[in-house]
Amino acid sequence: MEKLDANSRKSVLTKIGILKTCLETQNVYPPEELDIKKLKGELKGFSRIRVGKMRVIFEIGKETDEIFIYEINFRGNIYD
Known about the structure:
Blueprint: H1 6-26, H2 31-34, E1 36-38, E2 47-51, E3 54-60, E4 67-74, H3 75-78
């Protein structure tokens, strides 16, 4: 997060905040609003949020509903 410019950091934190609020209030996440997709292959079990050209790879704790951020990076770099 430290390497992101202020606008990118704000966008990422906003999307994560929306996800957090939805989990706390409804115990679900809104895939349409956040453009969330479940990942396959080596990243099976993780999901991603699209934030412009960036991707946030995360998983939700099975017992705690905590959001664990795995990586934040640009689309071309994150799946390598």
